[in-house]
């Protein structure tokens, strides 16, 4: 019996649909900076792409100079996830009404950032920095370190002259005499000490715990729990590997960062690299940071740091 034309057309349409390749899932877009150690290692070895391949998801990598530009890209929808950024960064992002979610944290590493002065400087204490020019990266962890160190010394941020510079420009300004001090974080901190003899005036011990956070766009976190679960697991594994294999990790990172392996080894010793879930109680210092910047007139509005969402990894 002849097949009705409508049935034939329907069959052809179904065949076309079945034969059409499935639309590829959108890649996970990760923003990172040079100091994003664990992300740098994952990018180098391709293990994150391999782990996500079962979900049909690729990864695209986007480099930025520091944490605040990463947050701006995250809020603009240009990336989905940020590599580790200092504790201060999400506070500034929240003040700018960014819709972001905490995904993971690296445990405190207070010695991984410090205020440096040239080796021949006559500055011997933070109190000596009154009315001096200090290079700092706006909205970075070193920004809060400077606030906290000045307060400890009985000074206000208004009592110094900030020079808002990238890490590379901050070091150049310190070495050329353009600033009297520079607040830096690793690996830039250790590199300046080892290569130029810069002297630590004050590190974060007792002032700033210097946790580093991984964040995602709010909408991405809500819709992509399985992807974030894979990312969290790979970050935790890599962080453990770095601490168990410090020499090999330093060699791999030295090639990426174009630094001597001994510098990287020393810098990595300052970092915990212990990747943990974010908890509401663990965010208490975030409010301290927000209040400190607001008191100095450096945030446009008050910030309730408890208002940001927290993604929780699945129990394994």
Describe this structure in words.
This is Putative aliphatic sulfonates-binding protein. Pfam families: OpuAC. Keywords: Signal, Transport. By secondary structure, this protein is α/β, with parallel strands linked by helices. The protein folds into two domains: 28-109 and 211-310, D-Maltodextrin-Binding Protein, domain 2; 111-203, D-Maltodextrin-Binding Protein, domain 2, CATH 3.40.190.10. The protein has 13 helices and twelve strands. The protein has helices at 5-19, 37-45, 47-52, 67-76, 88-95, 141-152, 167-176, 188-196, 218-223, 225-244, 246-257, 261-270, 284-295, and strands spanning 28-32, 59-63, 81-86, 100-106, 113-117, 133-136, 161-164, 181-185, 199-203, 212-217, 275-276, 309-310. The strands form two sheets. Strands 1, 2, 3, 4, 10, 11 and 12 form a seven-stranded mixed β-sheet that branches. Strands 7-6-8-5-9 form a five-stranded mixed β-sheet, sandwiched between helices. Helix 6 links the parallel strand 6 and strand 7. The chain starts with a helix and ends in a 6-residue tail after the last strand.
Distance between the termini: 59 Å
Would you identify the CATH H-level superfamily of the largest domain?
Answer: Periplasmic binding protein-like II
CATH topology tier name of the largest domain: D-Maltodextrin-Binding Protein, domain 2
Q: Name the beta content range.
A: 15-25%
Quaternary state, please?
A: single chain
Individual helix count: 13
General form = globular
Q: Measured on Cα atoms, how large is the radius of gyration?
A: 23 Å
Helix content: 40-55%
> What kind of sheet is the major sheet?
7 strands, mixed
Count the domains.
2
Number of strands: 12
GO molecular function: ATPase-coupled transmembrane transporter activity
Family: Belongs to the bacterial solute-binding protein SsuA/TauA family.
Domain Solute-binding protein family 3/N-terminal: 27-245
Protein name: Putative aliphatic sulfonates-binding protein
